[in-house]
């Protein structure tokens, strides 16, 4: 059992070591240097299938050990936290084992590839919570200071009653029809395509900032390039393409409308074909007395419209979310000095470690992750049924 | 019959004199001063129901005469063109009469309030065309130089094959739940709400720039504020509110997805509740080798992304569409001197008069307007049927 | 003497018919259609040196007559207003004659090519004013609604005490070293280059919005391309180039700092070589409790920063200056519908005609124009003296 | 002597531990995790005057030891690098001692508080270089990928011949006249105010991107608030104010023009009173065939204008400088994932360590820093002499 007296070590095992592994490593390394953490994370062991590659990752990212068998690592007494950064098809098995072993679990999003898996994980997380074991899912875009501040503004009533929402996550990295087929384009590995990979962020961010849930959806998902060159040597985004081709089994584009629990409609778009948009997770929330808008491509900014100002002075203002009193920012740099993408992960570590020490439920919980999974599933069902409305929690 | 020898007069009667009347008047007055028109428009007569008000409009806007009976005016021999700027419920009757009388007709959008009316009008326009009588519908946002240039760029292949489209028309002028109930909120007068008033522009602009048609749609329309104070004294947007309330019978928000004839999906939004957005008709077209984006709130600009540039130099560029060689701009000001909203109407006059003189079909034709009407109708039918997909030309 | 009873005609003679002639004509034509003018402008006669060209301008722009001798026109009893849109070297002679003849005078900026001329003109204007004759200089950028509103905001104390100012007018139309030598590049015709042509606007706008005067300056002016092809056939910006070359005798770039009468420093830039900037008259005024920023390339917008808002909500807001209650906008279009460049001229007509009818001094007065001329002169003297500080009113 | 075989340790002592200490610590910690460094930095010892505070900094930022006597630390054999992050008045003494002791030196900007000190330091650096000892000054904004890429673009001729430059560094953190008097407002500690603190960055960035030097300057510096409350308890920006007041002995605002060695004029502004601007280091370089513009408040973006594109397609494009092939970015995140302010320091470590291992001169060199110091000095001399032009290298 994790010791939670101030300054006690919190020994972390990270399962997986792709792009997300680098980001999580940076979070574990940096958070303790800027935040006063109640426990001291130790980057104990990184786990991967390939021994040599995993060893290289351990050296590069500063993990004390490398290992190849995650079951063995989970069984160790000297591990307190299991941080899961593998593709979605393995989340359930690892998380269930880790929770059973009494380890706190941080699991990358999406929580799982299916609702059934996510339900099992949530049930296990609930049981573990009763025994003081914490679990959390990694929707880190909640932890960009500007989005957290947006949530605070909405919660404080600064935009009034929510009237409508637009949320979109726009990328274009698949616009080259000859880009190779990676695991992110295979349904059995990735669960879904743009929908689950980036649409999931748009859903979670909407639910987080509004404090409401998507209750029903109508939409369509579509694959724009249905066949791509198989990946040859290497793996990941930069792998070279072979001459053979394979089927893309996930969506490239998802367009859907959801009804929020508060009654408002929210329209969503997730795409890997929006030419020229690189990482535009954007959300705009229109309320009865104001509005807020965020764009991840300008992540240190928040647009705020205060409809209670005099009529001739109305306008979206560009707030640089870099003030000491903005969320997460007190330990960082002076005003006007920007944070990068990676510190969503630093802030995640801060929140997760704090919750472990305090014995409280961290957020987003597995239940939050399950809900997002249910929305994704409902979108797929709606699409398969001619865009008829599907409840998300049926 | 209109004389079309160079310099012959083109005598115009305008039916209606609200906000659109001011804009059309400005178009008729200004176009001949900047463009070399083959015929000379004469602002002959303006027609309204209230004699005093119409007389005042005539004086203010420079029409030679005021009249109260449009049928009489249409019957006059000394009228060549009938310009219809009344609410949508009267378009059909007036246009049919005008075409029957051999007058060229310019009709504000939407063409009509129902598909049936629009079909009759289109049939009449086709018959009239055979006799050399021209008709056109007033989607003036096609004639903002930046949107015309966008069409030219797409037609020239500068963004490649169209992959997806986002089109939205965002306003917030109804966000005050106590704003009074005007004719624009009554289905019998306006036909529909945000959908037909501004969504129609988003549809037409999409079809114009892409050169494709929306073939099927799935969507939802919704009224956010269902009851409003009845209008007391005065008329139009600035009328005062009475203490009685009436039902809003049109939509405030329309969210729909359409399939374009070329295969791509286009997602649409029309709303009068997007807090802080005043007149944001925006369209972004993503192609296989580039993208373009337009926002009416910055109407002299066009964003263009050329995906064929070197990878490290890719980016949306902000083109100031104020060059001599941009569409419509040769007779205007030097580079960098902005045009206003109103010159969509000047350009409309230029194109309409030119088509009359040349004996060619002006665009958008009544058939184009009918098609937009069919899309609007399909959206309403889809919304009423749980967002199932509806063909637009069934 | 002009009759000033309501609705009396105000007969205008415009001297000159280049680019500014088109803009002024549009102002005279359009203003009466949107504003309730106390007098009725009549576009009586346009005057130019070339009879055929002037006749063509008269027809094109709607002037009743064309004439070639401005002295004769000024001598006519049936002319009330002389509107001077010729190059700067002729302003003084025409204005002095017109004032002597008891005509109200609207004179394009810069008021004159030299301080001495401007002083004579101002003295004449003062004498004429005593006899009820009005004069005004045409710094129309004061009459963009956003700049007028900026002045109102400053005057109302909404940015507090002025701490510093940045004003710049950036163009790039001379960046092509082979662009031909027009009158705007000849000192004897144009007086100066970027300094007087566009820098004058930056100075006037600074003085107008701040309500302060530039009292001393230090700066440098420079010609970047010193020799250009002589203009062959045609005239104006679009004339073709010949094979001979001539000396550019005016500046291409002016950089200077001024001390305002309230104590703050203002830094200025006027340039025709700022690559990619087409018509960027920008001003940013930093005050003790706020700031405002304007850019003519987005002339319907004003950026406002209210430093009295809560610290976490500070930011420049983009006000769309298109509301009914914004300056000049009541008679125009609904919210969110943009005005173009040309309506500075419409608003100028409104203000000028109103002042004539009311018997009040219109602004900017010749004295205001003289002051700008003195600033321009001081900049040239400072530049010639190694950038030492020169008083503007010595 | 530092061992430079691959993988050898590079033991670093950091002198000072304020805001810059945090940033440098992060650079030393993070760089080895993303870049393949030829030597392994060890965060050996941090030095400060106050033992307890220094000890706390060591723990917080991960330095192995804390010490209070920099002379002792410099004398140690087990230190290879001295990293100086103290206020400017101590740079010279520490750097000279460190170089004399054969330590590689990384010195924060400005290099020194006076030209004389900077000259001594440069001479010492030159002597040391002969013995294989490296020195570098910390203008980290050269190492934002977008600015480095801007330099590459200019060097590759992508904007042609440089015609003019605008460089500004705008902040507003002193706009509160009651903000307390810290060392940054005292000439004996800070050397100068806005001029040296942030103007130095504008100068260095201009020289870096253009590849040219400022040869003469004319300008003015000014203190806007001349007296402030003395700092009470605490130190640094967040110290509380006492009731006594002291004189501000540095400038708040610097406005100057410089002549570049290539002939073009560059205008500069450094200010702590530009209301609403938080950290706007902006530079725009106008060339004969293009332009580039950068703003540190959007540090992952570069605006590029390619004047060789077709005339109707000209425009500033917003390049997201987040591609694998952009400078420094290969080891970081996928396209569209933003870097923060701090990684200028990571990239600085990468370049500095690489130069040490390779035995080459890192940049910016002390000589580069000396040159900036000479420009600062010339600005002060010009200001004191009525803004007459002063050579920078006299």
Automatic annotation (TrEMBL), chains A, B, C, D:
InterPro entries: Gfo/Idh/MocA-like_OxRdtase_N (IPR000683), Gfo/Idh/MocA_oxidrdct_glycsds (IPR050463), GFO_IDH_MocA-like_dom (IPR055170), NAD(P)-bd_dom_sf (IPR036291)
Residues of the GFO/IDH/MocA-like oxidoreductase domain: 150-292
Protein name per Swiss-Prot or TrEMBL: Gfo/Idh/MocA family oxidoreductase
Coiled-coil ranges from the UniProt annotation: none
Organism from which the protein derives: Microbacterium aoyamense
Domain Gfo/Idh/MocA-like oxidoreductase N-terminal stretches: 10-128
Listed Gene3D superfamilies: Dihydrodipicolinate Reductase, domain 2, NAD(P)-binding Rossmann-like Domain
Top-level lineage group: Bacteria
Signal peptide range: none
Keywords: NAD, Oxidoreductase
